[in-house]
Specification:
Elements (H helix, E strand, L loop, with lengths): L2 E5 L3 H12 L3 E5 L3 H10 L2 E4 L3 H9 L2 H4 L3 E4 L4 E3 L5 E4 L6 H8 L4 E4 L6 H4 L11 E5 L2 H13 L7 E5 L4 H6 L4 H8 L11
Parallel strand pairs: 1-2, 1-3, 3-4, 4-7, 8-9
Antiparallel strand pairs: 5-6, 7-8
Helix pairs in contact: 3-5
Length: 198
């Protein structure tokens, strides 16, 4: 059992919190209130950032001390929104939210994952007709092993999990968000994920 704090209790955070609780972990989900987030992060082994990516860097940098020595799982994408509310552009082109978080939080192990799919797929990957792929980016191998185990608890088969390497690889997966609005406009708001077929 892992003690997990999920920062953000909207559709993404709430979905992850419920699924990890069902898997037997001790989970606390909190909103964006700084006091609640700090208390939850302080008590957790793993902290999941499910807050809107546009404000995540500032919000999490304020929790530097509470996140010291912890694993920070970043599932957010930092984008600007278009007129229809869908992602329009990257806030950190040429870099990534995950890289900037790791730079700002040197005593925290940042792992990027689960950001290349619509949120229902995060906890129900087998619901898709084709096996999806989930990616891991991060510098700390032990942290990635811990996150890999959490992914399997969420229903991800080991062969569906691809470790891309260091945190710099997160700029590739974060850029994949630019597919999302076009797929939704073309096919509707139905669950989908990126899949690497071999």
């Amino acid at each position: 059992m892992t003690t997990i704090a999920v920062l953000g209790n909207g559709r993404v955070g709430g979905n992850l919190a419920r699924a990890l609780l069902r898997a037997g972990h001790q989970v606390t989900a909190v909103d964006r209130e700084p006091g609640a987030a700090a208390d939850a992060a302080r008590a957790a082994d793993v902290v999941i950032n499910a807050t809107p990516g546009a404000g995540s860097l500032e919000r999490l940098t304020d929790l530097r001390e509470e996140l010291r020595g912890k694993i920070l799982v970043d599932v957010s994408n930092a984008t600007t929104d278009g007129p229809d509310g869908l992602p329009a552009d990257l806030i950190h082109p040429g870099s990534s939210l995950a890289e900037l978080l790791q730079e700002a939080l040197p005593d925290t192990s940042v792992v990027k994952t689960l950001n290349t799919m619509l949120f229902p797929v995060m906890t129900a990957p087998a619901s898709l007709a084709q096996a999806p792929t989930v990616f891991l980016s991060g510098e700390d191998q032990q942290a990635k092993r811990t996150v890999h185990a959490l992914l399997t608890d969420l229903g991800w088969q080991p062969e569906w999990i691809t470790d891309l390497g260091g945190i710099r690889t997160a700029r590739a997966t974060e850029a994949a968000i630019l597919f999302v609005p076009h797929v939704i406009r073309s096919s509707g708001f139905a669950p989908f994920a990126i899949s690497i077929s071999r």
